[in-house]
Amino acid sequence: MLSVNSLTKRLPDGTVLLNAITFTVEKGEFVGILGPSGAGKSLTMRCMVGLTSVSAGSVVFTGEQGRTYTTTTIKGNDLRRARRNIGVIFQGSNLVKRLTVLENVMIGRLGRIHPLRSWLYGFTDREAEEALEALDRVGLASFSGRQTGSLSGGEMQRVAIARAIYQRPLCYLADEPIASLDPKNSRAIMKLLQPLAKDHPIVGSFHQPDMTAEFCTRVLGLRNGTIVYDGPPRLTRAQLAEIYSQDLSLEPEEMPDAMSGPVLGRPVTSTGHWL
Amino acid sequence: MTSAVERSFAVRWRDFSLGRYRRHLRRLMLLAALVALAAWRAEVNMHDLITGLGRGLSMVGLFLPPKWDAFPEMIEPALVTVLIAATATPIGALCSILFGLAAARNIAPAWLRAATRTAIALERGIPEIVILLILVAAFGIGPFSGVVALVIGSIGMLGKLVGDAIEEIDPRTVESVACTGASSAQIIRYAVLPQVLPSLLANSMFRFEVNIRASVLLGAVGAGGIGYELSTAMSQVEYNKAATAALVSFALVLAAERASDHLRSKVLSRGQLA
After folding, report:
1. Is B181 in contact with A81 (Cβ distance < 8 A)?
2. Residue of A nearest to B191 (CA)
3. Positions in chain A whose pLDDT score sits under 70
4. Do B181 and A112 touch (CB under 8 A)?
């Protein structure tokens, strides 16, 4: 369970990037954050993991026995301990390209391994086996020995998901996980992520309202650093316009239409995108 | 008769003009003036060059033929020279990892980076011969001083290269590993070093070749090896023996250069394939 309380980020010159973002995520939820570019989706994610400092507010993760971890006001070893409970998936997967796929997955649990053991010994065989199981869950078990740089974008994203799974976190954060993938791979990744939400909640930011409509259990609409929508994943055209209305370059007909697609029985366009 | 096509491709004398260089004229004249001034102050003298050339060429005759039966006694000094370089290069490479980390803007705190970069710059400014002479005063004449001098020299070159390489790595990879809860040491081990080790390996091989040449030179100044043989032969006016020593040094440097090029190409190509 994760709760974000009044998360605020202000620049030194006074510009407010995030304006008292507040929401709570319970077990089983797959939350999709929608919003135009620059609305603060990635910034919110970064603040939640402690990559960017916040001006006010807090982010609290609650674990099994009620142990809480907060990522906003702490540093050093405490932050390290908190981070091991969050599985982060990035847009470009951001894996270490020179290492093998298996090593990249095993990096997921570095937060629980003593640094000295990392330097002197590396990973144990048991860790390798469990990492292989995680890879199997995403269908890439045969890739375990390959150099990560030789994989395609979609495959690397699946390795990133395997790493997050292997980490056994309290929840997953996905920062635009399908933004750089083609439609077919995007659907594959969403199909991978959806069942994960049943065990641990996922919060992901997306550009495609039709994807969130189909796979997410809840949608947050972010505009100019403020939450303007928090509710069911199927948005009406008016609700979408409210989120994206700052994007003046879009004609009303061009606004993303989350109602096309399997929801109403109309076929998804060949690009799989909102047109 | 030239066709229209031939006429368009034909190049005529008047197509060549020096006018395109006009905008460089002032700069070139300034450069020429500076060079002339420098040559005058350095007492460059074409007359001396020409007469001295003749004398120099006749000197070369004194070195030939090389004293072939002096070869066997050159083998051990040659080995010493190679071993000095072969010992110093790996030690220098390992130390340069530490120095490189300390010299990288994205790893080291500002004060550490400034201090390390200054130290490296100072080291690069001092010629290795001077470093060796200081070390000889401390440790005495012999290969040990040579090894320490070359380790210091290697750190100067490789430390800077590793530091620059670390500063160029993709920060998103580092962030990604940091988000798993990894400590700084683990981030260095898994996100930073894998990205810089291939280039460090290639640079170390290049440094080995440099160290062979430096080892020959330092040998003449007190480190032993083939350089020492060469300098003693010269000072004892045994020019034929000196020629033999010079040939052996030449062979060493050539072999080191070939080996280094070959290994470097293998390392770099391995990094690009699977």
Report:
1. yes
2. A96
3. 246-275
4. yes
Q: Which residues pair with residue A32 across a beta bridge? A: A204, A219
What ipTM goes with this model?
0.83
Q: Where are the beta strands (DSSP E) in A176-244?
A: 202-206, 218-223, 226-231
A40 Cβ contact list (under 8 Å, min separation 6) = A9, A17, A18, A21, A222, A224, A225
* Termini Cα distance of chain B: 59
Q: What is the C-alpha separation between A109 and A126, in angstroms, rounded?
A: 12
B272 touches chain A (CB under 8 A): no
Tens digits of residue pLDDT in B220-242? 888 889 999 999 999 998 888 99
Looking at residue B272, its pLDDT comes to 54
Strands of A218-223's sheet in order across? A86-89, A171-175, A202-206, A30-34, A218-223, A226-231
Find chain B residues with C-beta within 8 A of A103's C-beta. 190
Handedness of CA B166, B167, B172, B175 (dihedral sign): positive
Q: Which residues of chain B neighbour A172 with C-beta distances below 8 Å?
A: none
Q: How many CA atoms lie within 13 A of A240 on its CB side?
A: 22
| A5: β partners | A58
**A88 to chain B: nearest residue by CA?**
B179
Q: Which two tokens stand for residue A93?
A: 């997967």
B169 in A contact zone (CB under 8 Å): no
Reported as a single tens digit per residue, the pLDDT across B34-70 is 999 999 998 888 888 888 888 888 888 888 888 888 8
- Of the candidates A80, A92, A107, which has its C-beta nearest B183's C-beta? A80
Q: Residue B269's Cα: distance from chain center in Å?
A: 22
Instruction: Please name the member of B179, B186, B191 whose beta carbon is closest to the beta carbon of A115.
Output: B186
